Each structure stands twice: as C-alpha cells, then as structure tokens.
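FAQ

Q: What does a record look like?
A: Structure on top, sequence underneath. For example:
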C-alpha cells in the first residue's frame, strides 16, 4: 500500500485505539467483555498502522486449544518474557478467545482464586495482568511514532506510509506551506473515505431502510461537494453527522463498518459543521 495521512488522522487512530482498549480494560460482564474484545481485535486487524506492528512482532503461532486445555482453572497463563513473543502471545490469545468463546471468563478464572472473588474480579485481573501488557505495547508504539515523525512539532505535516502490512515504512513528508494545497489533500482523503463508507452502507443489512438511505444520501451530498472542489455547507455536514450517528446505534461495534462510521463522524466534526 501507499498512502499519505495527515497528523489529524494519525491522532484519530491513536485516540480510537485508546478508547476501544479502555472499554475492554474496564469490562466486568463476561458477555460484554467478549463483545468489547471482538471490537478491540477488529480495530487492530483493520487499522494497517496497528496490524503492521502486530505482524512485525509475530514470532510463532501458538496452539491455544492445547494451551487452554492444559491450563487448569487455578492457573494463570505463562506469558513469554521476550517482548515480541509477549505481544504475539497475547494478541493470539485474544483472537482465540473472541473466535471460540461466548464468555470471556472461560479463560480468566485463574486470575481470581481467592476468598470472595467474583467473575468480575477474574475479568478485571486478567485484563490488568495480560491485556494491559498488549495495550501498553501498542500505545508506546503509537506514541513513539508520533515523536519520531514530529507530530506535535509539525501539526501540518504529512506521513507517507508505504509497503505491505508487516513491512510498512513511515516517512514524514514535511510541512505543507500552502493552505490551499493542504485543504485539497485533506478533502481528497476525506472523499476517498466517504466513498468507501457509502459502498459499505449500501451493502450493510440495516432494518430501518429509511435511516440507511438518509445516511447514504447525506454522505453522498458531502462527497459531491468535495468532488466539485467546494467546501460542504455547515448544514450539509450537520445532516450527514446526524444521519450517521443514528445509523451507528444499530451497527455492531465489532465491525469495520462501525469503525469507518466513527472515523467519518470524527472527520466531519473537525471541519466547519
């Protein structure tokens, strides 16, 4: 892939990751924790910048069917000491949990074997002792990239991402001095995301067809304005945001469609709407 993103989008990616991670780390109910873990893993898998980090850390494939079978309810998992192995182990463990179990506590019970401990205790302790390790590694990686690329010092900078996932390279392309050029690039990027979202909305199974059609129409209206080289009117942006917020309430949090809707809403909120 080859893609240029601005600093604003990089910050949105970091913020969305922290939000999804925070939701999972604060989970207590076994079914809700599984749902949030699915959304967390889905975001990692569908965001190239983060999935690239996971793939680069990959050391080996773990047989979690065997590992879980041989780990009793009284035991904790043996987390590898090597950093890359730790990252890969925890990611694969969460992937296995979200694929094979409905209840999160199926694998967390060894983290709360003491008098008066509850299922919620086991989930919180597992997230604190295991999941948080992965969250911290990814957070450190994103913050490190931000420092390396000079994001805070160069708010108008662009980041060029090249390569295949697992081999991505990041290059800071410099400040954009011409305001018009900067706006054009941002609008083209937003236009690409809007068109992708429109395609996904058309394919999505949403019971309320009227709300679905409204969202498609209003987002298309924003896209048409950008494609014509115009800045969408505040009223157009507001209608698009409101229609997407309505649709968002019925879209599964774990899907990539939900992630794209969140991204577009955030983009629309950052322009004059």
């Amino acid at each position: 892939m080859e893609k240029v993103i601005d600093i604003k989008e990089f910050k949105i990616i970091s913020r969305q990751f922290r939000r999804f991670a925070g939701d999972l780390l604060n989970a207590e109910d076994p079914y809700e924790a599984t749902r949030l873990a699915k959304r967390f893993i889905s975001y990692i898998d569908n965001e190239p910048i983060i999935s690239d980090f996971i793939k680069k850390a990959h050391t080996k494939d773990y047989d979690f069917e065997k590992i879980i079978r041989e780990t009793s309810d009284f035991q904790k998992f043996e987390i590898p000491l090597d950093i890359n192995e730790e990252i890969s182990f925890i990611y694969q463990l969460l992937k296995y949990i979200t694929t094979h179990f409905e209840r999160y506590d199926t694998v967390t019970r060894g983290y709360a074997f003491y008098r008066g401990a509850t299922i919620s205790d086991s989930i919180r302790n597992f997230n604190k002792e295991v999941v948080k390790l992965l969250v911290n590694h990814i957070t450190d990686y994103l913050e490190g990239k931000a420092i390396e690329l000079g994001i805070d010092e160069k708010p108008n900078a662009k980041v060029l991402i090249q390569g295949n996932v697992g081999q991505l390279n990041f290059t800071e392309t410099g400040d954009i001095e011409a305001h018009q050029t900067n706006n054009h690039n941002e609008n083209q990027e937003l236009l690409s995301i809007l068109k992708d979202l429109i395609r996904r909305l058309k394919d999505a199974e949403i019971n309320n067809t009227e709300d679905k059609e409204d969202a498609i129409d209003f987002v298309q209206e924003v896209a048409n304005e950008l494609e014509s080289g115009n800045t969408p009117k505040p009223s157009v942006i507001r209608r698009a945001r409101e229609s997407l917020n309505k649709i968002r309430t019925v879209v599964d949090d774990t899907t990539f469609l939900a992630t794209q809707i969140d991204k577009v809403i955030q983009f629309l909120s950052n322009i004059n709407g």
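Q: Is there anything notable about this one?
A: Residues 176-269 form one domain.
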